[in-house]
Amino acid sequence: MEIILATATEPPPTVQQPSPLPRVFSLRFSGVGMWFAGLFFAFSLFPSLLPRAGYVQGVASGITIMIGYLIGVGIQTLWRYLQIPALPARPGKWLRIGAYAFLALTVVSAIWQYVGWQNEVRSIFDKPAISPTAWPVIVLVTVVVAALILIIARSLRKLAVFGTRLLGRILPPRLAQLISVGVIAALLWSLVTGVLVNAFFGGANAVFSVRDTATTEGTVETTSTVRSGGPDSLVSWESLGRKGRDFVGTGPTVEQINEFTGGGAKEPIRAYVGLDSEPTLQGRADLLLEELQRTGAFDREVLVVATTTGTGFLDPMAVDPVEYMWNGDTAIAGVQYSFLPSWISLLADQQAVKETSRTVFNTVHDYWSTLPEDARPDLYLYGLSLGSYGVESILTSISLVNEPIDGAFMSGPPFVNPLHDEIEGDRDPGSPAWLPEYEDGRTVQFTSSGSEIDEVLTTNWGPTRLVYLQHSSDPVVFFNQNLALEEPEWLLDGQRGPDIPEEMTWVPIVTMWQVALDLPAAGSVPIGHGHMYSPQSNAEAWAAMTQPPGWTSEQTKQLVTVMQAQGTAQ
Predict the structure, then answer these.
(1) Which has the closest alpha carbon to 395: 413, 407, 378?
(2) What's the pLDDT at 5?
(3) What band does 81 get if pLDDT is binned at 50, 70 and 90?
(4) How distant is the alpha carbon of residue 35 from its chain centre?
(5) What is the pTM for the complete model shown?
(6) Alpha-carbon distance values, 244 to 106, 163, 305, 312, 419 (Å)
(7) What DSSP character marks residue 195?
(8) β-pairing verdict for 465-469 and 269-273
(9) Which strand (E) or helix (H) includes residue 357?
(10) Beta strands in 318-422 (DSSP E)
């Protein structure tokens, strides 16, 4: 018997392959995109207006790398869409070799010079030098920021592809793609400008409103009858807000002023109304006027209506000097309109500062205008940073035609200031963008240290005097969205200010991001640079504008020494 053994052939056991990573986490990249990413990384290392901490450089590099990558991918996509033929193999090969050799040299050169570039900026600002040990932080933050942006971008792309496929069942492919991308772009824009922005500002308000209830260490409740929040005041101490309490609870005393001037000083009047002092804007303005009337402010020689910064801050290095110069025969008044720091208020509270400035000024000015000219104080305006934006909104008031003020002092005017922008654009030929001259200085004077306008004391400056104090290294002043595509005049040869790094170079798109990232740090640099204005600069500007009788530049120097000894000036 023949036995036939039949064997069944069984398939080999399958080896389970690991599932591929989702495309959003894929390590596959566009070659053209990577080339532009590398180039933009090198550009991101160029110096800007302010010294950069390692983590700030990492954020700048991460954002800039992804901008470069997006540009490269966009060029590659457009090339394919237009069906432009690729270069022949041999020329294409040599072009790639040349391009990557150029990229390698550029990146290595930028990395090699980065520490030197940053130390050049740091030497201008009298900050300690850095060493190559800063690189680990820079690399780590760069990678994290770039990876996050890449994941978000790929997720949006995946969503767009899904939408295109879905719509492609009922629409032509191109139309489906256009609608899908358009809808996602619109939703993204709404999310960023609506939900995220509102959440950011809401969170910021919550955080800073809590801080506003605190009192700065060293600030004590005033016992003066000529200060808001003191005895007989119509405004409670608690309602002033943190910066309002700082303003009325500090400042030069009669004894300190007498010691400086030789005697005869009056106690300076400081009137202030906080956001919690009255529920309505007009109510706060009326309350301020009542405080000024109560304290006798309209019987003083000088009345300063000050527009605060976002937090309600009035800079002691700016307001104290005028009280010394006029032997205390002054009144300074301000109203809070926000809890937020100026760099946030710049985006959120432009309308609030404009409305507050105009309402407060009109209320005070209307009363001041009813007083006899020879029996009322000289009226001046003052604003630092966003406060200067409020001052500019007052300067356009029609009420100034018949009853003009005596002057306005605007320090660190932000890039949103329309009048500042207009004057800079129409400046006299030959004057630099960072320190313009306008109509031979008959109405407006620009200064970076105060000393530039000393000679105005003996020239024919008009009856209404405007002063802008600005540093060439202040990003709050010189940031502009146009930096993305247009080289600013203040970076041109012959136009650069004294504290702009020689190696700072304009690069399309990149420079805008660099200066934007300088904004939050503008108030954290040494006095005399960035957004930190010195008591001497402020004092010289006040002296030139208000012209106290017998005041000399030597007294300005002595005043700064006194303020430094008292701890007002740093």
Answers:
(1) 407
(2) 38
(3) confident
(4) 32
(5) 0.85
(6) 52, 54, 14, 6, 28
(7) I
(8) unpaired
(9) helix 350-368
(10) 330-335, 378-384, 407-411
Q: Which two tokens stand for residue 66?
A: 């992804």
Helices (H), ranges, 17-53? 31-44
- Using DSSP, state whether 306 is helix, strand or coil: strand
Domain ranges of the chain: 23-210, 222-471+533-566
Amino acid at residue number 452: E
3-state SS class at 526 = coil
Cα dist from 136 to 32, 65, 75, 126, 285, whole Å = 27, 17, 32, 24, 53
Which residue stretches of 372-486 are H helix?
386-395, 418-425, 475-478
* Predicted pLDDT at 349: 73
Least confident of 69-73, 162-166, 510-514, 565-569: 565-569
Task: Give pLDDT tens digits for 441-479.
Answer: 888 989 987 666 655 544 668 788 999 999 999 999 999
d(CA 41, CA 233): 58
> In the prediction, which pLDDT does 1 show?
36
The distance from CA 68 to its chain's CA centroid, rounded to whole angstroms, is 25
Residue carrying the six token digits 């052939």: 9
Q: Would you tell me how many other CB atoms lie within 10 Å of the CB of residue 142?
A: 23
Show Cβ contacts of residue 123 under 8 Å, excluding neighbours closer than 6 positions.
129
pLDDT at 459: 62
- List residues bridging with 380 in a β-sheet: 304, 407
Cβ distance 278 to 240 under 8 Å?
no
Helices (H), 403-524: 418-425, 475-478, 510-518
Cα gap 60→67, rounded to integer Å? 11
Q: What percent of the chain has pLDDT over 70?
A: 88
Question: Given the DSSP bridges, would you call strands 378-384 and 302-307 parallel, antiparallel or unpaired?
Answer: parallel
| Residue 287 amino acid letter | L
Give 275's DSSP letter. T
Q: Which of helix, strand or coil describes residue 256?
A: helix
Alpha-carbon distance of 91 to 89, in angstroms, equals: 6
CB atoms within 10 A of CB 287: 22
- For 110, other C-beta atoms within 10 Å of its C-beta total 18
Question: Which of 466, 345, 357, 465 has the alpha carbon at shortest distance from 414?
Answer: 345
* 327 membership: H or E segment, kind and range: none
| End-to-end Cα distance, the chain | 113
Q: Which residues contact 367 (CB under 8 A, 6 or more apart)?
A: 289, 293, 298
- Whether 271 and 331 have beta carbons less than 8 Å apart is answered as yes
Residue 108 burial (C-beta neighbours within 10 Å; 0-12, 13-18, 19+): exposed
Report d(CA 130, CA 107) in Å as an integer: 20
